[in-house]
């Protein structure tokens, strides 16, 4: 007969008694039936999740927010200017908005969620093939934020994949080949989200010009290209068309003590725009008016947020917003983020259209490589990368 030991003894056995099991990720730990959260995941008291009503579970908390809604279809209709302005307002006030009526077939979204869940359900040996300490690897499986540097780990595993510009079959050969159809389904999703990001970015650029010169009805005749687009907007859009797309597939397994840890700690995203698809399990929280509020999943829609590059490019008009993810005890959760920016080797700086004597540049030039160097050399904390890009004399 098996004699039951203490929860701590069971847990020590489950994680192998040594630190190395943590590096296999939280899916691995959760599959071993942990009942007590290992110390490595326990946040200091002041960093633990807490909500006003004292309810810690995002599944039950009433403290949720409805993000401003953007009807994507209307961007192609007579009310385009109204939608452009409402996106500008959402970026300025919230840094987050919800996109509906985007036209991406439901099947592509459900396939993406299913193939993400399917990837993490595979045996550890299959997932482990993509584990790499190289932050520049085009495919990387890992856990926490930076598992080698984080002093306290967080309760998430991830698969990061870089989307090549052509998305041709040959260029996807580094991507996982299982579950079956992984490459096909993820590539379909990546193409659709790339298109959506381009349409949104064009609207965001127009919105920035309107905010900067509110009395302008539109670009002057000299500044319109043959296809009717403001030349300045057109130039920037060329950078986005050739730009980078990074996808992060996240998995948050049930957590034995979710009130002691987080799925992801407070952070901002580094690109221009992040498009987030979540399954039906709540967990995402945004920092809004000094409070953490839950973004309840709206089936078939995307939560979109401003990233650090857009904060820099907009010269601080828009701010990348802190968000975090709560863990929960009962249900596994998956999400997929698609992060869009200029090409990896391009420089990001405040848009010249927005900078003049009255509005001096507030940020240093930056690039994706500079961000990667920064985060691979230290524990990423909140927005400290962005802080490092602010010009010293500017009080923003
Ligand atoms: O899982 C989520 O809802 C958010 C994920 C996220 O913030 C990220 O991957 O940066």
In short:
By secondary structure, the chain is α+β, with helices and mostly antiparallel strands. The protein has ten helices and 15 strands.
Considering the chains and any ligands shown, give keywords for the structure.
about 400 residues, alpha+beta, Jelly Rolls, eight-stranded mixed sheet, five-stranded mixed sheet, 10 helices, binds 2-oxoglutaric acid
Mean pLDDT: 88
In DSSP terms (H or I, runs of 4 or more residues), the helix count works out at: 10
Radius of gyration: 22 Å
Largest sheet: 8 strands, mixed
Based on the structure given, which CATH architecture is correct? Answer: Sandwich
Please identify which CATH superfamily we are dealing with.
Answer: B-lactam Antibiotic, Isopenicillin N Synthase, Chain
- Amount of beta strand: 15-25%
CATH class: Mainly Beta
Describe the structure.
It contains ten helices and 15 strands. The protein is α+β, with helices and mostly antiparallel strands. It has one domain (67-389): Jelly Rolls, CATH 2.60.120.330. The strands form three sheets. Strands 2-3-11-8-13-6-5-4 form an eight-stranded mixed β-sheet. A five-stranded mixed β-sheet has the order 1-10-9-12-7, with no helix packed on it. Helix 4 packs across helix 6. The longest helix has 31 residues, at 182-212. Bound molecules: 2-oxoglutaric acid (AKG). 2-oxoglutaric acid is lined by residues 248, 250, 264, 269, 276, 278, 283-284, 323, 325, 335, 337.
């Amino acid at each position: 007969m098996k004699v039951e030991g203490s929860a701590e003894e069971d847990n020590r056995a489950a994680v192998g008694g040594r630190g190395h099991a943590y590096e296999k990720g939280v899916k691995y730990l959760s599959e071993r039936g942990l009942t007590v959260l290992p110390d490595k995941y326990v946040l200091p008291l002041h960093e633990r999740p807490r909500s006003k009503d004292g309810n810690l579970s995002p599944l039950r908390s009433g403290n949720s927010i409805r993000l401003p809604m953007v009807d994507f279809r209307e961007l192609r209709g007579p009310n385009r200017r109204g939608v452009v302005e409402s996106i500008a307002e959402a970026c300025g006030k919230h840094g987050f908005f919800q996109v509906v009526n985007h036209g991406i077939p439901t099947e592509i979204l459900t396939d993406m969620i299913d193939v993400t869940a399917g990837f993490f359900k595979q045996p550890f040996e299959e997932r482990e093939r993509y584990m790499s300490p190289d932050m520049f690897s085009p495919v990387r499986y890992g856990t926490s934020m930076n598992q080698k540097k984080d002093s306290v780990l967080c309760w998430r595993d991830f698969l990061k994949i870089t989307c090549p510009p052509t998305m041709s079959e040959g260029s996807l050969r580094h991507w996982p080949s299982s579950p079956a159809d992984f490459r096909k389904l993820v590539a379909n999703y990546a193409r659709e989200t790339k298109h959506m990001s381009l349409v949104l970015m064009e609207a965001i650029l127009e919105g920035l010009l309107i905010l900067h010169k509110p009395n302008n009805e539109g670009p002057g005749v000299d500044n319109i290209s043959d296809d009717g687009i403001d030349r300045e907007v057109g130039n920037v859009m060329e950078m986005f068309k050739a730009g980078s797309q990074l996808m992060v597939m996240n998995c948050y397994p049930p957590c034995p003590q979710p009130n002691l840890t987080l799925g992801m700690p407070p952070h901002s995203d580094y690109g221009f725009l992040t498009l987030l698809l979540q399954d039906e399990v709540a967990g995402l929280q945004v920092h809004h008016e000094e409070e953490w509020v839950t973004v309840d999943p709206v089936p078939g829609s995307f939560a979109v947020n401003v990233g650090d590059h857009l904060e820099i490019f907009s010269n601080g008009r828009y701010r990348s917003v802190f968000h975090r993810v709560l863990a929960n005890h009962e249900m596994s959760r998956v999400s997929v983020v698609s992060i869009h920016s200029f090409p990896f080797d391009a420089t990001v700086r405040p848009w010249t259209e927005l900078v003049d004597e009255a509005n001096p540049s507030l940020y240093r030039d930056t690039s994706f490589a500079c961000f990667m160097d920064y985060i691979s050399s230290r524990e990423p904390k909140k927005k400290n990368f962005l802080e490092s890009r602010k010009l010293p004399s500017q009080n923003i």
